[in-house]
Amino acid sequence: MPSLEERIKERGKAVGFDQVAVARAERYPEHEALKNWLNAGLHGTMEYMARGEAKRLDPKKVMPEAKSVITCALNYNTDYPYSTECRQEGRGWIARYAWGEDYHGVMEAMLEKFSAEISRQAPDTRCKIYVDTGPVMERVFAKHSGIGWIGKNTCLIDPKLGSWLFLGVILTDLELKPDPVIPDHCGKCAACIEACPTQAITEPYRLDARRCISYLTIEHRGEIDAELKSKMGSHLFGCDICQDVCPWNKKSPRTDRPVFQPREGFFNPDLREFKRRVEQGYPQGFKNSPLKRAKKEGLLRNLRRNFFGGSADNR
Ligand code: B12
Ligand code: SF4
Ligand code: SF4
Predict the structure, then answer these.
(1) What residue's CA is closest to ligand 2, atom 8?
(2) Which residue has the least CA distance to atom 1 on ligand 2?
C-alpha cells in the first residue's frame, strides 16, 4: 500500500505538476536573506515585499497549524530559442514566462484541484494555496523539499528540469515526511553573474532588484535610470538572460502545454508592430496576459528607448 506521501505526490502529478515534494513548515536559514535584502533596500519600490516581512519569514505566521509545505513546480519551457540566440535589430524580447496565459491563474486552478485531491486522501485536512499570491517564499520551500537548489542567479534549479519553472505551495496541517534536500550544483560557474547586462547579481545568490531588467520593465513605475536603460538591450518585458546562459538549462525539457505557447506576436516581437499593438490593442489584446502587470504606460515606457541604437519610435 503506497504511503500517504506517495499517494499525494501521485495525485499532484496527475493534476499536471512536473514536480511535487514536501518540506517541513518551518523557518529556514535562507529566510534570513530576506531581512538583509530589505534592509539594504534591494527590493526598490516593491513595498509588498516589506509589508509582509514577518509572515514571509515564518510560515506559522501565515498558517499557525501548518506542519508541512507541499511544493509544486510546473515547466513553462516551450520549444522556442533563448533570448541569447535572438539578437536581431528591430525586434524586442518578452520574457519566456510571459508568452502565454498568466501563470497565476493556471497554477491556482491546478493547486485548487490538487488540494481537493489531498482532502480526499486525508479528510479534515486544512490546506492553503499560494502562487506568488501571499507572503510565502516559494523558492525556499522548493529548495527544502528537495526539488532543486537556489542558484547564484537566485533561481530555483531542478537538476533534470532546469529553472524554467513556476512554483506553487500548499501549506497543510498534515504531518508529512519531508524529502531530502539536494546539494548546490553551481560549483565554480559564474555564467549568470557575468552575463547579466546590468550587473544586478551583485554577488552570488544576491540580486539587487533595482538593477534587474525584470524589475525595471515590470514592477518599476516612472522613468528608468538612463545608465540602466542603456544596458537593457532588446528587453520589453522581463528578462531571461541569467537563465538562458545557465548550463542547467541547456537540456531543459520542452513543454507542449497549450496555455504557455506564445501568443501571436509575443515571441521576439517586431518592435514597431508591438508598439502599434499596445497603442491600439490594449487592454483587449492582453486579456489574461502577464504583460498587464506593467500596464499600458509601463509597456509604452519600455518601448520608448534605444534598442540596438534604434528605437520603436524612429523606425
Ligand atoms: C520579488 C520577486 C521578484 C523580483 C526580485 C527577484 C529576487 N531574486 O528576489 C523581480 C521582479 C526582480 C523578479 C524577477 C524574476 N522572477 Co520573481 N518573484 C519574486 C517573488 C514575489 C519573491 C522573491 C523573494 O522572496 N525575494 C527576496 C529575496 C531575498 O530572495 P531571493 O533573491 O530569491 O534570494 C534567495 C537566495 O538568494 C537564497 N540565498 C541567499 N543567500 C544565500 C546564500 C547561499 C550560499 C545560498 C545557497 C542561497 C542563498 O535565499 C534567498 C531567499 O530565497 C517570488 C514569488 C514568491 N512569493 O516567492 C517570484 C519568483 C521568485 N519569481 C519567479 C520568476 C519566474 C521570475 C523571473 C524569471 C521572471 C522574468 N523572466 O523576468 C525573474 C528572475 C530574476 C532572478 N534572477 O531572480 C519565480 C521563480 C521560479 C524559479 N525557478 O526560481 C517565482 C518563485 C514566482 C513563481 N511563483 O513561480 N521576481
Ligand atoms: S533577469 Fe536579467 S537583469 Fe535580472 S539578474 Fe537576470 S540577467 Fe540580470
Ligand atoms: S549560470 Fe552557473 S552560477 Fe549561475 S545559476 Fe546557473 S549554474 Fe549557477
Answers:
(1) 196
(2) 239
Across the chain, what does the average pLDDT equal?
95
Cβ neighbourhood burial of 168 (10 Å; 0-12, 13-18, 19+): buried
Query: Residues 218-235: what's their mean pLDDT?
Result: 94
Q: Is the pLDDT of residue 15 over 80?
A: yes
48-69 tens-digit pLDDT: 999 989 999 999 999 999 999 9
Same domain? For 30 and 123 the reply is: yes
- 185 lies in a domain? no
Ligand 2 atom with least separation from CA of 207: 5
Is residue 154 located within the same domain as residue 199? no
Please give the positions annotated as active site.
132
CB 199 within 8 Å of CB 57:
no
239 shares its domain with 283: yes
- Asked if the structure places residue 208 within a domain, the reply is yes
On whether both 206 and 159 belong to a single domain, the answer is no
Q: Are residues 274 and 158 in the same domain?
A: no
Are residues 115 and 234 located together in one domain of the fold? Answer: no
Residue 225 lies in a domain: yes
- Which amino acid, residue 306? N
Residue 310 has pLDDT above 60, yes or no: no
Q: Report the atom number in ligand 3 closest to the C-alpha of 249.
A: 6
Q: DSSP 3-state helix, strand, coil percentages of the chain (rounded to 5)?
A: 40, 15, 45
pTM for the complete prediction?
0.96
Ligand nearest to the CA of 48: 1
Ligand 3: residue whose CA is nearest its atom 2: 189
Q: Which ligand is nearest to the CA of 234?
A: 2
User: Do 71 and 154 share a domain, yes or no?
Assistant: yes
| Domain interval for residue 285 | 191-252+262-311
